[in-house]
Design goal:
Elements: H1 10-17, H2 23-56, H3 62-68, H4 72-93, H5 99-104, E1 106-110, H6 118-126, H7 145-150, E2 152-156
Antiparallel strand pairs: 1-2
Helix pairs in contact: 2-4, 4-6
Amino acid sequence: MEEDLPLLDENELYRNSLRPTTLAKLLVNFIVDYIIFLGFFMFLVVAIGIIAGLVTGDEEFTFFSDLERMNPILDRIFTGVMYCLYCLFFEYVANGKSIGKMLTKTRVVSIDGTRPTLNQLITRNFSRIVPFDGFSFLTETPQGWHDRWSDTYVVDDSSLPDKGYLQ
């Protein structure tokens, strides 16, 4: 008599069909998102500077010269946190996708193939601040520390089931 093998549950089937995306797509995601972030961030800073100048009556707009004198380490930390918030916002609101991921048809999923939780996305995005996180992709499987620490992957949309997945 044949032995009954246990059936895989639905999440196990998803996990087995997921294909982590390529290093090239991850790089495109980063470049696109960072360029869009910098454009948005510069627009925001200029708008705040102009509004601050108009509100305070500062016709010379010293806000901008004050920014030039900002501590470079503080500037890096502030910009890094803002970039993390940008990524967190898009990945949470757009179901695991940032603008770069929309372009490359990829998305963030939990390691079991389901939609990542808000806690996972917070861990994932704020882990980006860790120095040398970019070098963590130079391994056999292109999964950065921020993905390992949050139990997430970036996968190709084509590896996900069709019907209403992650909705």
